[in-house]
């Protein structure tokens, strides 16, 4: 089944309003959440709405947070999200980073006491209209084993970097620091397919092709797989440290799970989950017009490179932008299971899908 | 053959002095260069000294550069390296980033018109004694094909992040954004061993196990290999953009080669090669003592995790630190080929090895 963007928007906004979010926060949360559906990251979009609701019901998400700055310098700040929706806390942090960049050239905001923020790319891209480069990182529930580890100590800890261009659309990298995100394992499971080598390990640390290993004590493998997972581990670790050790959030195995049926660790080392945002004004380095000419040249050179037959070199963000164009015109497809879930949610809150 | 650190230091310093470097620059260049030998990155150390000399002879390295700030804001700057040794230009840029961080909380310095800067980790680590987090990136000669590309458009573009801790030694990530660095291919070639899957492709973009493919139009594969190279490509691209599009250096296929026998492209899009440095004061986010307690806890938790038999979870920087301790006491081993090369260099410049 396919749904118009505005229909899903009105529905999700209604649910967030019913949770008690302010009109502004409900609109922001919806825009952040649905950016995943538009960009084709179906695992992070409206399919997760009931997950956020369950966390709110478990009193682990605060619908009316007092989001506050707890420390700052000319180019930095730490924000306490007051257990609010990451979908709302993160754009607030990015706006502060943008304000700081306007004055100091760059802005760097670490966030503690937050929750899942949707897709990292949405937040990084908030910098683009200001001719700024945006960076967004977050830690997440531990599902990933560092190289040699039998324990799951890291989340899929994504890195997003958005860079403005001139005539060309922007460069938008948005990647998990694992070989494959957990969502891809769920797709393989539904299709009855094995996982490729280097994606997942069993509880004893052996290579596995069973995409459901994480339910049996197994773990996702960091980016780099069999011969290079120490690099993905290092990147995921860096994301964890900047997002949580720097902000005062929970890190490593202490990051609270996204699912409401799993309890957060009883001995937290910080508050909530952590994010880290960076914004750099392009003209804090060179004139924006000059930068854009070269960024266009960069993009055209890479996109025009000689490629293997029937393929083209893609610029990070190309597939997601094309998907957005398509879904804004053709609608957003949802699995029946998701439609049923949303229908139930609508009935509970008196919001029509 | 094994050489004491001070012996190699005096030799390399003498060669840099003979090139015309000032006493300060010769000392700095030597310290930067030999940090690679100490940390076990043999491909980037004193074995490359004659490579720098040949670039100087070809007038592509300026031994007496006027390194200048061409643009700045409270938290940013762009430095023109005046074609100087990257070994000297890069620490200068890091010092400026540290000064900016002292005032603005963070400092971000993009560098153009530079040359190869040795190992990224050396520069990132300069932040550590100041209780700051250091970041160092650089672009490099194109040897890497983006996903689907037959053309080599990126270098091995490393990322280094150094984070101070308290009782524990610091976290020091220093990684190429390819599955394996070119130096590993050279080691495989010497040993007559094949390259693992996902490391290298032939000139037609096919998977290859021949470590010499880059001499026949083949290319290194970005981190992530067969099923995830788009992520390594995205990271390498980000390094290229921040180091060069932002600074005004050459990017992508225009990056000048490190070897003097290959000419730089005749149609440069910028000046020299580019670097990007970041420094963040820890206490621009939270009190340094508090941060260090949690950083120690992070390190101890990861290092103490249950591991596969006969292995331990390593903290990025552990192997290099142990290597440094060993080589400072036992000396630095050099291949006979390198010793012969250095001896020849010494005779030419009247410097005794």
UniProtKB/TrEMBL annotation, chains A, B:
<dbReference type="InterPro" id="IPR036111">
    <property type="entry name" value="Mal/L-sulfo/L-lacto_DH-like_sf"/>
</dbReference>
<protein>
    <submittedName>
        <fullName>Ldh family oxidoreductase</fullName>
    </submittedName>
</protein>
<dbReference type="InterPro" id="IPR043143">
    <property type="entry name" value="Mal/L-sulf/L-lact_DH-like_NADP"/>
</dbReference>
<dbReference type="InterPro" id="IPR043144">
    <property type="entry name" value="Mal/L-sulf/L-lact_DH-like_ah"/>
</dbReference>
<feature type="compositionally biased region" description="Polar residues">
    <location>
        <begin position="206"/>
        <end position="215"/>
    </location>
</feature>
<comment type="similarity">
    <text>Belongs to the LDH2/MDH2 oxidoreductase family.</text>
</comment>
<dbReference type="InterPro" id="IPR003767">
    <property type="entry name" value="Malate/L-lactate_DH-like"/>
</dbReference>
<feature type="region of interest" description="Disordered">
    <location>
        <begin position="198"/>
        <end position="217"/>
    </location>
</feature>
<dbReference type="Pfam" id="PF02615">
    <property type="entry name" value="Ldh_2"/>
</dbReference>
<keyword id="KW-0560">Oxidoreductase</keyword>
<dbReference type="GO" id="GO:0016491">
    <property type="term" value="F:oxidoreductase activity"/>
</dbReference>
